[in-house]
Design brief:
The structure is a homodimer.
Chain A: E1 6-7, H1 17-20, H2 34-51, E2 56-61, H3 64-75, E3 81-86, H4 89-100, E4 104-109, H5 118-128, E5 132-136, E6 138-139, E7 144-145, H6 149-158, E8 161-165, E9 184-188, E10 199-204, H7 206-215, H8 240-256, H9 258-278, E11 295-299, H10 306-315, E12 318-319, E13 331-335, H11 343-360
Parallel strand pairs in A: 1-12, 3-4, 3-5, 5-8, 8-9
Antiparallel strand pairs in A: 2-10, 6-7, 9-10, 11-13
Amino acid sequence: MNEYPVGLVPGPVSVPRNIRESWLTDFGSADLEPEFLRLYADNQKLLQKLLGTKESVVITSGEAMSALWGGLKSALEPGDRLLAVASGLFGEGFADMAKSIGMKTETVAAEYNSLPDPRKVRESALRFRPKMITAVHCETPSGTLMPLKELGDIARETGALFLVDFVSSGGGAEVGVDANGIDIGLLGSQKALSMPSSLSMSTISERAWKVMENVGYCGYDSYLPWRDVPRVPAPYTHDWHGMSALNRSLSSIMKEGMENVFARHCRAASLCRKLAAEAGIELFPLNEDMCSPTVSAFYVPKGWTWEELDAALRSRGLVVGGNYGPLAGKVFRIGHMGSQADESLVTRGMEIVRETLAVKN
Amino acid sequence: MNEYPVGLVPGPVSVPRNIRESWLTDFGSADLEPEFLRLYADNQKLLQKLLGTKESVVITSGEAMSALWGGLKSALEPGDRLLAVASGLFGEGFADMAKSIGMKTETVAAEYNSLPDPRKVRESALRFRPKMITAVHCETPSGTLMPLKELGDIARETGALFLVDFVSSGGGAEVGVDANGIDIGLLGSQKALSMPSSLSMSTISERAWKVMENVGYCGYDSYLPWRDVPRVPAPYTHDWHGMSALNRSLSSIMKEGMENVFARHCRAASLCRKLAAEAGIELFPLNEDMCSPTVSAFYVPKGWTWEELDAALRSRGLVVGGNYGPLAGKVFRIGHMGSQADESLVTRGMEIVRETLAVKN
């Protein structure tokens, strides 16, 4: 469907009209105009505030995977060690990506419906001595949110860089980059920022810049050329429309108040899980404490295949998310992030879920 | 300036309103919808027609530099040999990029206001035996267009892959991918396609796919995961808005007729150079035959610095392009590509140039 009557996909989320209207301006050349550089700098400051950091912020053109690859390649060289902390597909994915480019890896993994034990992470870090520890804040396929503070402490204790994918939580939950000791933090535009998928935002600590300078990685996704942007030109023609959309998104979050936005996400998430429980739908994560405020994962109800459920929900106007890998066909997801962290939208969506299940039961 | 009263920058060009209005639709998830896959496939077909190829077309999210890096990294491994054919900054840039990722390189370079001699390219290719020969079709900073047929023949004769950057010519001039033996052809969105800068389009020949499969490069800019898209899912959440904008751009080119579009570019280019000559402005390329139909490069007139000229033109509403590297401050450029390949716009712009120079003279 081109447009969803009731859209609760866990990203890309529905993009509010005022953000889409950024494209109505026929912007000049981002390479030439001081207005663009000021906009970039303004977005850097707003992102520092939103993500809780005094360190650098870099905004690049490309989907969030460009930031994931860029984070690994900019800071690691073949043979370096990477410890992946995982409670799902994306967490494990970091080890796969790192292996594919020549790193030695170890993974501390929990069941997908659970969270890893930080003691095991510490044990592994002390023995394996990784150059980088990776974690995924919100594991979107699993619907879990990983506590970061202890992992950041372990990284500091063992001298590792701490890379965190907060692609689907940043903007919808507190990320606390500096408080959690995150050296490389990665955010996508199509989740809680309610934008199209074409921009990536990254936080880079001074420690991480030093490592990146030693590595000297060259490529589209290298962070190095961005260190002094906007004081120096960007390494390619930037996306002024996207930068304007980002400014509208961040300004709207600041106007509502970050704490209010995070609270709105929590309310939408609690409501979603309460309505699901009332409809007899089983939560995938082991308990509510580990659930993300941006996405909820549920077992596909007994008596349904995912394909049947998806088709039945769509026939009533609701589109939700399926799953991947071992969770494909077994777990489905409701995305209540950004523009979709909306209690009335969640109520409407879960009412459709309830009605759909009732017809068959 | 956010919007240019008279914009003749050689990319990013002015984006027509109907293309920008692609963003007014609140598209669903590109990961989930058959409509998106059909749109992607339709754009592949339109690009095959526009670029003259029966080989693969890949459309990715990211500025054109992602395609340049992706082309090199997907097909080369450290130690491989690359022969760069250059008549300007971007042509020479391929050798710099390749060196930075461990290749052995050789460059056959002409003066920036000229074109390289294919005999020298052949001599070098026969001796150096490169795995890849690179060329830039329209060398935007120099305003020249490089004939490709002889270079393609040399690549075939010596068994090299032929990679061509037609970022700023594709859509505005005939590229002839198959006719010229181009194995990897690279196009950006913000030039003759009159779009924002966020998409890249590449043609990949069967020969190139075989090499890429042997190399097995992994990364954001790797072409490998794209070989069977849209029959298999894309490796990240694609940009549905951009894909829709591309469809509008390509459909509009097909409606006007490709030959008519190319002819319109030639007329705008000839007119620009004629009006410049009448205003006493000296063409940068040695002769008109080597000029690109998408951009014209001129010497900054005597008695002016580039900064003075830029400020004076801007004060009358006209924004043109400056230059980089050895041409910075010496050569300026008029971009008449895509939406700007418009005789009335060029006339208006060159009238401002004439008036501006007249005041000082």
